[in-house]
Write a structure and sequence with these properties.
Length: 696
């Protein structure tokens, strides 16, 4: 085995995993009450909230996947991190105060109080599907795949070829674009992902030299577009291709991850999850910053400023830009400023497994400071992950290395980190796998919390004591681990080339548009009714799956629409349209049904989170700020001012708005302005605005 991990690396890697599991078991050894088990006894300090939110959010994809996106596409992927600040601040000042004032365990409990049990059950089912199927399954997949890639090291590359057709439409030859590396036996040749027997590959020095037709081409393939690929031929296992993960080892990796996370989550509850998340977050940050530092220290790169100058210079490819055309298939600028915001408001404000960390805080202030601190950590990811991918593009170009997008991280470890020794690869591997485990453990605990309180205690055993509730929670964690593990093994290809990150975001987007609407209108509009709430949640799912089909029919033959939004509707555009339509459904049905006056008090104004005057001032300030940002963007596009100038103006204005609010609040309670959380929230928001303009 050509492992990247030396004996020292293996000791650090497995030692870190065992230490984290042991710490989780130790801190959670005395969980006697349901509040201890599911909300960590509401005793979490701000640093625990920050570490757990960050650890629950990030995964190996933030290092491996985003680094590959930076290498191949550029900085535009940073929108997922930068605009997340809007969602975090919405949680901090709008959603969280409501949840904590009502003392809820689950967010579906709020929907039950504000609307009725139909909304509660609808939300609970959607959240369990998202956490177990859409997030835990890809988490097991990317985790096991990453472990195996690290252990097996560089085992070669698949060959790349294309079909060349003659004028009459028949196949004339197979052109080898890249012969691959480390083939042991000739691979099978596939056409459109199906094995064929009339094509035969031959090798020379471990590479595919040529593909010949040993019989004439079947008529079924004539005149059709043909995609050529290869399967098998790995030097150690002929059943798989060079560079592929062995399916047996992939399944073994899933089992190991399930045992490690399951052990401390089942026994220790949320307190164990939070402590291990903090440790794993620190490991991830250390690993990411270490890879970035070593990469940017290479003489070909010469640091961040030198890289930016080169990228924007004559030989550069201008990857340090955030905004793509509105018809971009993956990251259109119209989508990231509309539908992506809907996804952020769901993920950070109405998502059980993120919000549960803030609910466990000792005080409202500790919760807010933890959320803000997590936001600052989020803003590091574009630099140490995506930026490092861009640096790798130029580094490999200068060294004449041909590297696939999904192999960038491994190639950096091979070329730069592994030769240094000192167990650095083991430390980086521990950080990467720790990030995955911290996401998995959070989802296990939160999904079990929903099933325990929203199903078992609500409908089956309302009088259940704490010991019984903890037992039920542990049972559901085991069920979810087994279910997610089996689904991962039987549905996720360990050698898939699809974008894991966009896969998760797309499927989440299809389920959450109506959820965001139900929460938002429920908190701001006292006239919202139970019928409107459940209708919005269900309509959001219906719209999300039907709108792309409708758009495809409208776009067929409509070049103007294709030029504007593409031939297929991006999932961000779909999420935004679905949210707008769901809001209309909610409003129309609410106006036609009788409101409940008591339930109507569970709003921002009714709960005295804000006064009507404060909300009015906030809305006017927000609209004025958006007008300023739009003006700055127009000036940049018109090349009247430079992006850097717009960045400074936007950041200073943003901080000024928050500073005024912070100083007013600090004066009213008799503390220094810098001790008010809004002061630090202003710093966070201004950093995000600065990045949105600076990398225009």
């Amino acid at each position: 085995m050509n492992s990247l991990l030396s004996s020292t690396d293996l000791f650090i890697f497995f030692g870190s995993l065992i230490a984290v599991m042991g710490m989780g078991l130790w801190v959670g050894r005395k969980e006697d009450s349901s509040e201890d088990y599911f909300l960590a006894g509401r005793s979490t300090r701000w640093w625990g909230v920050a570490g757990s939110i960050f650890g629950s959010n990030v995964s190996a994809n933030h290092i491996v996947g985003m680094m590959g996106v930076g290498f191949a596409v550029g900085f535009a992927q940073s929108h997922f991190e930068i605009t997340a600040i809007a969602g975090l601040l919405m949680l901090c000042y709008f959603f969280l105060p409501v949840y904590r004032k009502l003392n809820v365990y689950t967010l579906s409990d709020y929907l039950s109080r504000r609307y009725d049990d139909r909304s509660r059950v609808s939300y609970a089912l959607i959240m369990v599907i998202i956490m177990v199927v859409i997030q835990m399954v890809p988490g097991f997949y990317i985790g096991s795949r990453s472990i195996n890639i690290l252990l097996q090291g560089d085992t070669g590359r698949k060959a790349v070829a294309e079909a060349v057709a003659a004028p009459d439409g028949k196949l004339s030859e197979i052109k080898i674009l890249h012969g691959g590396e480390a083939y042991g036996t000739p691979p099978k040749v596939l056409i459109n992902n199906k094995e064929v027997d009339f094509l035969e590959a031959s090798l020379l020095d471990g590479q595919v030299e040529k593909v010949v037709m040993n019989t004439s081409e079947p008529e079924a393939y004539q005149g059709l577009p043909l995609s050529i690929s290869f399967s098998g031929g790995n030097l150690e296992n002929p059943a798989i291709s060079p560079g592929d993960v062995d399916p047996f080892n992939y399944q073994l990796g899933i089992l190991i991850m399930a045992l490690i996370t399951g052990a401390y989550v089942i026994i220790g509850g949320l307190k164990a999850v939070i402590i291990t998340d903090v440790i794993q977050s620190a490991l991830l940050l250390l690993a990411g910053l270490l890879v970035a530092f070593i990469t940017f220290s290479q003489p070909e790169i010469g640091g961040w400023a030198s890289l930016m100058d080169r990228d924007l210079g004559p030989e550069g490819v201008e990857r340090f830009h955030l905004y793509n055309a509105s018809n971009h298939p993956a990251l259109p600028w119209t989508g990231v400023l509309s539908g992506l915001m809907v996804l952020h408001f769901y993920y950070w404000g109405t998502n059980q497994f993120i919000v549960q960390r803030a609910l466990s805080a000792t005080t409202d202030k500790e919760a807010k400071m933890g959320i803000i601190a997590a936001g600052f950590f989020k803003l590091l990811i574009p630099f140490f992950s995506i930026g490092t991918g861009i640096a790798a593009f130029y580094l490999f170009k200068d060294r004449n290395l041909e590297v696939a997008q999904d192999a960038v991280f491994i190639k950096l470890l091979t070329e730069l980190i592994s030769p240094l020794g000192f167990g650095l690869v083991g430390l980086i591997a521990a950080g990467m796998i720790g990030a995955i485990l911290s996401s998995l453990d959070s989802m296990m605990n939160s999904a079990a919390t929903i099933m325990t309180f929203d199903l078992y205690k609500k409908y089956l055993n309302p009088d259940a004591d704490d010991r019984k509730l903890i037992s039920v929670g542990r049972f559901w964690i085991i069920v979810f681990i087994v279910l997610a593990g089996f689904i991962t093994i039987y549905t996720m290809d360990p050698n898939s080339k699809d974008s894991f990150f966009l896969h998760v975001a797309k499927h989440q987007g299809n389920l959450i548009a109506g959820v965001v609407v139900a929460f938002f209108l429920g908190m701001c509009w006292k006239r919202a009714t139970a019928a409107g709430g459940v209708a919005a949640i269900l309509a959001g799912v219906l719209f999300s799956y039907s709108i792309p089909v409708l758009y495809a029919n409208l776009a067929e033959g409509n070049q103007a629409l294709i030029d504007l939004f593409g031939s297929k509707l991006n999932f961000m555009h779909g999420a935004f349209v679905s949210a707008l339509l769901s809001a209309q459904v909610h409003i129309v049905i609410s106006l036609q049904t009788q409101p409940d006056e008591e339930k109507g008090k569970l709003t921002w104004i009714g709960l005295q989170i804000f006064s009507a005057k404060e909300l009015s001032v906030f809305l006017k300030t927000l609209l004025f700020c958006l007008a300023i940002y739009a003006t700055l963007a127009t000036l940049v596009v018109s090349e009247i001012i430079l992006p850097a100038m717009a960045a400074f103006i936007g950041a200073i204005w943003t901080f000024f708005c928050f500073f005024l609010s912070a100083s007013h609040k600090a004066k009213s309670v008799g503390i220094a302005t810098y001790r008010e959380d809004r002061f630090w929230a202003g710093g966070l928001a201004s950093c995000a605005i600065f990045m949105l303009f600076y990398f225009f």
